[in-house]
Every structure is written in C-alpha cells, then in structure tokens.
C-alpha cells in the first residue's frame, strides 16, 4: 500500500519551493523505501529548482541524505528494514565493461527506482538525482542504499551522500594525495573544505586554501589547511601558491570553484608533472582558451573528479568509522539544522555564502 509523506517540491523554474503531500508507492522489485532522517541542502538542489538541471517539473528535491530502511521490494538482499543507510545517487552494477575491468567508479549503468513518486493529484515527480530526499519518506533503488554504523549523527552521515564525499574523494581518490604532498585547494566552500580535510587525512604536509571569502578560509583552517590565501587581497594567486611551495608549485591542485580563471590558476600553480583535479561543475556557457604548448610542457595529470570517484560500499562505512574515531571532523560541515519549511531560506543563505551546509532534519 502506498504511503503519504510531507516533502519539498519545485513546481516550476525559479519558483519558491513548497511543502506538499507526496504519494510514495510500495517498493517494487529491487526498490526500497527509506524514512529520511536528515538531508543536506546542496547546490544541485538549487540547480533543479532554477531549471539549470532538467526542465521536467515538478521535482522532488533533496539527495544528500541518510535514514532508515522502511520497506524492501522483491529481490532486495543488500539491506533490510531497520538498517541505517546513506543514500548514494550513484550505484554500481558490477556487470558493465568498467566494472568487469575492476573500475567500478566508472560504471556506466544507472540505478534508480522504476516507479515514480507523485503529488497527491497524481502528477509524477522527478526525484533529484534519482533520490528525492527532502521528504519524510522516499523511494529509491536498493543499490542507492549503503549501510553504515548507526551511531553516527544522521545530519553528519547524510553529507557523505554528495558534497562532502565529492571533496574528500577529489583529494584521496582522484588526486591520489599521499604522505608528504603539498596540496592547494581553490574554492573552499563545502566541497573544497572537504578536499582540504581529505588532503589532511591522506597525510599532506602543506595544504593551501584559496578563496575570496574570509569565512570559508577560516573553516578551511579548521579542516586542516596550513596556509590561507585570500584571493581578494592577492594580486597573483599562482605566485602566492608557488611562494608557499619553494617556488615549485603544489604536487596536487584541486579546483573546487569551477571558473575559467580558477582553472588557469590551478593549472599554473601545479608543480611540473603534478596533478590537477577539477571537482567543481562549470556552467554550460563557460569557455576556456589555453596555449596548447603549455599543456604539453607542464606534463603531469589532469583529471575530473565525479562524485569523488567514490565507491559508496567501500568509502561510506570507512569514512563514518574515521569520523566516529575522531579522525575526520565531519560535524564541522553542519552550519545549521532546519525543517522542511526552511529550505527556500536555506537557498538564500547558500547564495550569500553564509553556510557550508544547511541540513534538513525530519521531525
């Protein structure tokens, strides 16, 4: 039997979101319903609301979440009712060519629930990133559920479902940061701050945080940055990073801002033969012009980090354990705890740069 839940819905492009009743069907084969306990407010949710991602309104927003499995459908074996899980918007199949070749982070399959949740009127809802977690209850594919230690704060755990995992993974998985490395992170909001934390966890000895916002730089210091560069007060970010790395540049540079100018800064502040990671999602209209010879002469590696190149079944439990052991301060990312009715105001705070993460907690 289907269930009714309160949820945050985007009804049209740019319109303020509304709390509505939604109908959540019973899980079918391979599907699971999850009682959401907490869900972070991510830029991706704002992109859905503003029509930057998709134009098939209405959308059920929210995707960075944790909760407890409510019901399971036929053929579900990886979770059981009562399991505490983090929802991951990317599930791996184990059967496609990348999976068969031992590279599951590049899985080309796509796992989401076959059924759609609907408004009370029967109008189908598009679920943000196949999850739709600004809801008391949501329907997902069982592969989108990763069980973790239930002792963790749900508000903290949910952030691993997207932004924080993206930043941690950009440093630890994509960038391959290791002991003794120098690392520069350009743009230290939620994702960039997590990249700083990931670099520290991986053993980097010099971690340079770059931003135009003193508040974000202060957060980055709390995550482990050894040096701060205020780009508003620095004529040459590249020179500043090089001066802090014996004139050589950083071994790994992570662009978590996603602008053509920060791309150039990251490229030229990288050590010869070093690694450059782009983790921010640039806007579709952005263009970049670079001397091709420079890309040849500087050598090294350029990578794009998608979801931190994570494997949820491997990374989520391990990162939660590190947090519970006191080695990963995930709680620092939670700026405020809000209700479903506060999501629109949380978008405003996000635009102003007032928060790292607003987290919706269900009553």
Automatic annotation (TrEMBL):
Q: What biological processes does GO assign it?
A: formaldehyde catabolic process
Please verify whether the record's keywords include Zinc: yes
Q: Which UniProt keywords apply?
A: Metal-binding, NAD, Oxidoreductase, Zinc
Reported cofactor(s): Zn(2+)
- Keyword flag NAD: yes
- Signal peptide (from-to): none
Question: SMART domains per the record?
Answer: PKS_ER
What GO CC annotations are associated with the protein? cytosol
The cross-references to InterPro entries, in alphabetical order and at most eight, read: ADH-like_C, ADH-like_N, ADH_Zn_CS, ER, GroES-like_sf, MycoS_dep_FDH, NAD(P)-bd_dom_sf
According to the entry, every stretch annotated as the Enoyl reductase (ER) domain falls at: 14-360
Any idea which GO molecular function terms this record carries?
S-(hydroxymethyl)glutathione dehydrogenase [NAD(P)+] activity; zinc ion binding
State the family it belongs to: Belongs to the zinc-containing alcohol dehydrogenase family.
Note the PANTHER family from the entry.
ALCOHOL DEHYDROGENASE, ALCOHOL DEHYDROGENASE CLASS-3
Query: Which protein is depicted?
Result: S-(Hydroxymethyl)mycothiol dehydrogenase
């Amino acid at each position: 039997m289907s269930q009714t839940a309160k949820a945050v819905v985007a009804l049209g492009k740019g319109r303020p979101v509304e709390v509505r009743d939604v109908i959540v069907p019973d899980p079918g084969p391979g599907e699971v319903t999850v009682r959401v306990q907490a869900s972070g407010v991510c830029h991706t949710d704002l992109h859905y609301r503003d029509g930057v991602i998709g134009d098939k309104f209405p959308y059920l927003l929210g995707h960075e979440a944790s909760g407890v499995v409510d019901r399971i459908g036929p053929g579900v074996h990886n979770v059981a009712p009562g399991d505490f899980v983090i929802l991951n918007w990317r599930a791996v199949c184990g059967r496609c060519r990348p999976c068969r070749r031992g590279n599951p982070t590049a899985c080309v399959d796509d796992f989401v629930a076959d059924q759609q949740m609907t408004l009370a009127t029967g109008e189908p809802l598009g679920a943000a990133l196949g999850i739709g977690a600004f809801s008391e209850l949501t329907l997902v594919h069982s592969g989108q559920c990763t069980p973790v230690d239930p002792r963790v704060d749900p508000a903290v755990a949910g952030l691993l479902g997207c932004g924080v995992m993206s930043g941690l993974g950009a440093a630890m998985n994509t960038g391959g940061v290791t002991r003794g490395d120098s690392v520069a992170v350009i743009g230290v909001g939620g994702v960039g701050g997590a990249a700083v934390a990931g670099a520290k966890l991986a053993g980097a000895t010099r971690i340079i945080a770059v931003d135009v916002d003193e508040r974000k730089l202060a957060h980055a210091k709390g995550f482990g940055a050894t040096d701060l560069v205020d780009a508003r007060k620095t004529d040459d970010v590249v020179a500043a990073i090089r001066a802090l790395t014996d004139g050589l540049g950083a071994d790994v540079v992570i662009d978590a801002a996603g602008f053509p100018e920060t791309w150039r800064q990251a490229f030229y502040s990288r050590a010869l033969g070093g690694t450059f990671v782009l983790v921010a999602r640039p806007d579709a209209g952005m263009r970049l012009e670079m001397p091709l010879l420079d890309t040849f002469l500087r050598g090294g590696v350029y990578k794009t980090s998608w979801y931190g190149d994570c494997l949820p079944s491997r990374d989520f439990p391990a990162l939660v354990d590190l947090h519970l052991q006191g080695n990963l301060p995930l709680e620092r990312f939670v700026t405020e705890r809000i209700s479903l009715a506060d999501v629109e105001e949380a978008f405003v705070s996000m635009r102003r740069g007032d928060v790292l993460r607003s987290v919706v907690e269900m009553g």
